Amino acid sequence: xxxxxxxxxxxxxxxxxxxxxxxxxxxxxxxxxxxxxxxxxxxxxxxxxxxxxxxxxxxxxxxxxxxxxxxxxxxxxxxxxxxxxxxxxxxxxx
Length: 94
What we know:
Number of domains: 2
Radius of gyration: 16 Å
Strand content: 5-15%
Helix content: 40-55%
Strand order of the largest sheet: 1-2
Distance between the termini: 41 Å
C-alpha cells in the first residue's frame, strides 16, 4: 500500500470526493507496512517514529493555521445548514 492508496481509502470511507483543506500527503511513499497514528503529532513523535522504524505518520490535526481556519469555516457552514443559529455556529478563539 502507498500514501495515495491510504488517502483514497480514507476519502472513500468518509464519503468524500476530494481531499479536504486540512489534509494532504507531505511525503509520498510506497510499500507502507507500519503506521504511527496520533491526534497531535509533535517533533518528538516524528523522532520516535524514525527510531522505531515506522514507515508513515498520520495525524488528525492539521499542521498549519490556514488549513485549520478553512476547516472551522466548513464546520460553521455545516452547523448553520443543520439549523444552528449563526451566532452560535461561528468559531470563537480565546
